Amino acid sequence: MKISFFFHLFVSLPAFLIGVATAEFLLGNGRAEQTERPIVLKAHTWPTIFNSAYEQTHASPRVSDGPTDMIFFSPSTEQIDVMLAWIKSRQHLQYIPEANDCDDIAFEWRVLAHRWAIENATYGAPVSFCAFIAYVKIYPGAFDGAGKTVGFHALGLVRDSEGVFWWVEPTGPLKVKVLEAYYENTIEAVKIVW
Ligand SMILES: [Ca+2]
Fold it and tell me: From the CA of 171, how far away is ligand 1's center (Å)?
């Protein structure tokens, strides 16, 4: 199913109904007054995130899929790098087949990414964070040559403030633009887990 068809059926209509199809929000300070660090968040509603995620990953959207929140903040690329280091120092990376393998490590990465956002970027403002995970098929050469094997894998998926989605290896600071990996045929998206 092409995204255009899906978009018209399931994105345009609810977006029209709530009247915020691609609006950008300038949010208030959240709890910034408590942090003494005034912030203004530029965020997007979920149809923008949803549509661009499927356009860039080329994953097939499903009726039951979709973000679970309404408004999302996207970090700068500099913030993403800071976040990845923050996450790595807090992860449980002991590999245990089935029990703590790539899918489990990716889920933990997703939880930590959202925690990083609350504590270091959005400061309690009522806005979600553009970090998700996805199941993919990965090929040798992925992540600028770091990938050596072929197989199914779970990756982090982050949207930056310019609207560019990045694949992130949850066990380390490797990241690559989704579209770059797509055109290099190194990472094939199977399913976005919102
Ligand atoms: Ca597992």
Answer: 14
Predicted structure pTM score: 0.82
Q: Which residues surround ligand 1, an ion (CB under 5 A)?
A: 101, 103-104
**Residue 2 burial (10 A CB sphere; 0-12, 13-18, 19+):** exposed
pLDDT of residue 59: 95
CA of 153 to the centre of ligand 1 (A): 11
**CATH among 3.40.50.10420, 3.20.20.10, 3.30.460.70, 1.10.1740.10 for 3-193:** 3.30.460.70
pLDDT band at 124 (very low <50, low <70, confident <90, very high): confident
Q: Residue 27's beta-bridge partner residues?
A: 41
CA dist 67 and 47 (Å) reads 9
The mean per-residue pLDDT over the stretch 25-44 comes to 59
Cα–Cα distance, 184 to 15 (Å, whole number): 33
